[in-house]
Amino acid sequence: MMSVTLHYIYDPYCGWCYAAAPLLSAAQAVAGLQIRLHGGGMMTGARRTQVSPALRDYVIPHDLRIAQLTGQVFGENYFEGLLRDSSAVFDSAVPITAILAAPALGVDALNMLKAIQHAHYAEGLKVSELDTLSAIAAQLGAEPANFRSSWHSLSGATTEQHIQQSRSLLTQLGGGGFPTLALEQDGQLQRLDISPWLGKAEAFQQWLQNRSAAPSADSGVFCSMDGC
């Protein structure tokens, strides 16, 4: 089997990235396939978002569609707790930093992302708070004090540089938002259209296992940079 790299441009607050999570789990089981995460920073800086009735009304129809299409779980504490909590702020940089910190602590970055997504959508937890992220990291085997130290060392300039590099890759691929996936083979990057695979993780895994020719250049875009 020819080794390829699956590049995944994501955001922790992108609902359609949560929809794609089972596909990424399936990809983890493909022998020879490397997976690289690129946090796009959908809600950073001026895009940081305070929870409001308008935000709730915007995201719920998307969430219900995702649940119907993929079976992904959206919990009562998310719909009736987090999305009604006007004190909550969605800041992508905070969980992205946690995902960047994970590998040095022996935690797979994709597993950290999936745990953060579950905490947000299924449990309704505030994943822009360091205490929440520290607890998630501990559940995955990281020592809390080490996690916090690593998080602080990467927060700020390092995370911002990562986000800018991710956005540059998004532009390079011609992607319009998140999730955008691409296969890299022999130095060539081509975008994947994952829309046919949503809710079909086993079929996606088989497709990746059988993949030996150049990937498709179709788009895998579901969210705009303005929100998801």
Automatic annotation (TrEMBL):
Ranges for domain DSBA-like thioredoxin: 10-187
CDD domains, per the entry: DsbA_FrnE_like
Family matches, as Pfam families: DSBA
Entry-linked SUPFAM superfamilies: Thioredoxin-like (SSF52833)
Name this protein carries in UniProt: DsbA family protein
Source organism: Undibacterium curvum
Phylogenetic classification of the source organism: Bacteria, Pseudomonadati, Pseudomonadota, Betaproteobacteria, Burkholderiales
